[in-house]
């Protein structure tokens, strides 16, 4: 008895059967492709974390350090803005914090380098040019507070102030 090769079930297709009565092309489109699409769809809808686990832990540590700083400053009766010297209410929302040496590495969570500030003064400090900052009414008090807090940051601020005064004198 002579065996004849079976043809694909799809009408008009003349290719030999590969599996389940379909040729290789139709088998792939009907059986394999849907499985691949299901895998892709599952992967496609996975939520991507907005921040990494490491950064999440760092932020949790930062929040705890801010709370500790608040408690420490309240005990020392120094719960006030680094820039303006105005007192904060003991109860109420947590104010912004200024990082004396930036937020890189361990500076972000170093309790000695973070200080509470009012947002308006904080924005002025970061947004204004230095010639304008040294003319603000709170600036001299800020320099005096900074000298007591951190000598290194105090020297950096004095250098910035001297440069700004040189620029003003040239004009």
Element order, helices and strands? HHEEHHHH
Strand order of the largest sheet: 1-2
Over all CA atoms, what is the radius of gyration? 33 Å
N-to-C CA distance: 108 Å
Task: State the secondary-structure class.
Answer: mainly alpha
Helix proportion? 40-55%
| General shape | elongated
**Sheet bearing the most strands, described?**
2 strands, antiparallel
Low-confidence stretches: none
The amount of beta strand, in percent, is under 5%
Number of helices: 6
What this model shows, in words?
The protein is mainly α. It has a domain at 58-170. 51% of the residues lie in helices and 5% in strands. The protein has helices spanning 24-44, 53-75, 119-127, 130-133, 139-149, 151-170; strands at 96-99, 114-117. Strands 1-2 form a two-stranded antiparallel ribbon. 10% of the residues are buried. The mean pLDDT is 86.
Write the layout of secondary structure elements.
Elements: H1 24-44, H2 53-75, E1 96-99, E2 114-117, H3 119-127, H4 130-133, H5 139-149, H6 151-170
Antiparallel strand pairs: 1-2
Helix pairs in contact: 5-6
Descriptive labels:
two-stranded antiparallel ribbon, 6 helices, 171 residues, single chain, elongated, mainly alpha
